[in-house]
Fold:
Amino acid sequence: MHAETPAEATTTERKTAALAAFKDLAHEPGVPKPDPILVVDNVVRRFGGLTAVEVGHLEIQRGSITALIGPNGAGKTTFFNQLTGFDTADSGSWTFNGRAMNGVPAHKVARAGMVRTFQLTKALSRLTVLENMRLGAQRQLGESFWRALLPFLWSRQEVQITMQAYDLLTRFKLDAKLDDFAGSLSGGQRKLLEMARALMVRPELVMLDEPMAGVNPALTQSLLGHVKDLREQGMTVLFVEHDMDMVRDISDWVIVMAQGAVIAEGPPGTIMSDERVVDAYLGAHHDAPLSESDLESQLHEAEEALEAEIEEETQK
Amino acid sequence: MDWITIISTTLKSAVGVETVLYGVAAIGLNVHFGYTGLLNFGQAAFMGVAGYGLAVTVTVMGLPFWVGIGVGLVAAVLLALLMGIPTLHLRADYLAIVTIAGAEIVRLIFRSVAFKDVFGGSDGQRGFSNGFYAINPFEHFFTARQYGFNLGPVPLFFSPRQTWVIFVGWVLIALACGVVFLLMRSPWGRVLKAIREDEDAVRSLGKSVFSYKMQSLVLGGVIGSLGGFIYGLAYASVQPDVFGTETTFYMYTMVILGGAARVFGPVIGSMLFWVLLVLVYGVLAEAVGAGYITFMDVNQVGALRWILVGLGLILLLIFRPQGIFGDKREIAIDAR
Ligand SMILES: Nc1ncnc2c1ncn2[C@@H]1O[C@H](COP(=O)(O)OP(=O)(O)OP(=O)(O)O)[C@@H](O)[C@H]1O
Ligand SMILES: [Mg+2]
Structure:
């Protein structure tokens, strides 16, 4: 009990610190943050005639959980691809921790501390869960050809890496699957593995592309816990998600993209009532409910409208 | 039917010159294809540049034997760089196309009229293996006329020269297997296997995929070049057409037969391949000679056995795609 109290104290501290940073910010796209870890300027990516991404200015606050939302095809994944070096932007520049990152190849981006996961999970099927995890560790002595031939040079580090992997797998409830091939995991378990593997890199900024998609509700709750946990450990999280209930639950700040551009930013509580956001979503989604509470209010509205109509009819 | 001869040649082929030289080159191919997922269809070219590197250095330039070995190894490394630099950034299929074309270019240069003075045209080169046999302990240290033993009524003997080649060949196989074993259980090998599964995932974890694929191509190419040396020394000659595309295909058969991504897979594969080939040939040829088979003559037996090899490979891929040593679970995942 006593051991938990200070941990809880820092929990609220981190959360309050993050929220305090956002408190007085304008709800405008590209609003400057007090301590940005990632600063993006004029990133453009075109596919033929289609402009998939056209982001003017954007800053991500350090130590926060920022959600990136937007209708299907808004350009969220493409934007991730530009930032992490998996695709080459037509133009634009961005800095991570003040270091220019445009044109840097993907593996160097990861080494710099900016690690992403994929919307379509990339488990390394014919490697075991443990080997998947070990692969994520950085600066491995045994990854150089000549040293690899001399196991005594890297075996101690391998033990450390294995322990780190084991800790993470336990946290993600995958420790029972240690020696299974990753290809034999279920879709949700693969999502968990990919997230855990990304954490093996010990990143500063974690970019998660729909980490909850296809994960069952019970598991989602624990995943949400893990994501919050990342902030507690001092990491910055940027994640893409469609489920607004989830976004509301864990994020400190929300960025909305539509048709390639950032159209709004704001706190999760009020962002969905922003006119620009409503327009963007309704344009794309034709009244699709975004969460249960939205569904209810939409039902209410529809009922009221119907009642009014019936009343009108009867009055005639 | 002369069963004694059939059994003798078959058993000898299990450890013989062909088994050794294809086996070692297939170990290299296994590094590419089995562990890294690189579709290299030009493994024969690595053997070719090594064999010719040795031959030309010794016969044309008149330099010592060991210099020739060095030139062959350097040539294999250069070939790997040459084929890898433009293609390893691209998707796997492109490496397949470039290696198959690259290997043909190499073979056609070796047999071209323009370079006949250097490479000897379609006749190839000979007379470069004296340095190798000059240090043959089975000739100059031990003095037996032949080496081997009788297995019951079946004589299993090799000449001193054959014994020396086979001995060196198996030492090289042991070394290559040892290196592959050490590497593939290290973090270095882990990166290679991960690249085989998904390059982007490996990139996202901070590893330079291009660099590792290049290292794999060079390593497998250098191991493959050992097969080229063994060929040249065993037959005391090299000819361009030995290093054609079908040589690479035999090696693929061996790798799959033994089990891809297994340390001893290619060696067992090579042994089985040659044992079956020699056995089928021996039995059919004897049966034709003795009049048991009448619908073909002895000359057609050679062609028929290759048809049977093709049929065997097809059946193997259908009924046991993981090969002898492979893990069925892995294949089940892969075919998902
Ligand atoms: N490689 C490509 N070639 C051509 N067009 C592409 C390519 N990748 C993405 N696009 C287009 O860019 C736009 C943005 O796609 P993107 O995948 O970034 O959307 P998203 O916001 O991640 O959507 P979702 O929420 O459905 O994942 C889409 O219109 C898509 O068709
Ligand atoms: Mg997407």
About this structure: The first helix of chain A runs from residue 4 to 23. Strands of chain A lie at 36-47, 50-61, 65-69, 91-96, 99-100, 114-116, 205-209, 236-240, 253-258, 261-266. The CA atoms of residues 115 and 198 of chain A lie 6 Å apart.
